[in-house]
Specification:
There is one protein chain. It is globular, with a radius of gyration of 18 Å. It is an alpha/beta fold and 244 residues long. Helix 4 crosses helix 5. 25% of the residues lie in helices and 34% in strands.
Amino acid sequence: MVDHVFADSRLAALYDSMHPFDPRGDFGFYLPMIMAADAVLDVGCGAGLLLHTARERGHRGRLVGLDPAPGMLAQARLRPNVEWRQGDLATTPFHEEFDLVVMTGHAFQVFLTDQEIHQALTAIRAALTLTGRFAFETRNPLVQGWRQWTPEHGRTFVADGVEIRAEHRVQRVEGEFVHFTNTFSSAAWERPEVSRSTLRFISADDLGSALAEAGLEIERQFGDWDSGPLTDGSPEIITVVRPG
């Protein structure tokens, strides 16, 4: 099931306003890798800003964005010169076609079961050339970042001249799984929009085991977008892997 926040066309249209390009964040980290690769697959590409930026900055190779959410793909398809596909790794197989696969925006955390993780990683392994790389991130569970997902830590942004408030509320935490809501509200709307989500906060050790089982070998790991080392207190587990 695709979360309402991504499937709904009105909410999907807000995504870029809520998450603008940040040269010090994840897009700034991944963009140089994309620019250096001839063929790139962005899994969970969302509204397509990352690949669109790469093309605008002169990328001349193949750029493919894959996302299961119709609302997000509708936004991405407004951006030309990139191959946009609606679907997921299970329904859209690739075979040794990409020098680089990326998965940004903590999209890896939507895989909730070991089987889902294995299927996704196996499909990515198949999509990579023999010298390809897969780069992605997941939040470090040791930091328990979800404790900051409260209304007072929400954000207000403007989209098409309308002020909108976005707030997280954690409903419950069950082991590695965090269940929460995203609520979007505006004085210009009749009522708020609520989206319910669940994310898995996998440990670095379990992630390493899952990668190895899928035939992928960790090449580099970082704990933040400045390429700092991965420690227990790092907010991110940023991983670059190669076929093993």
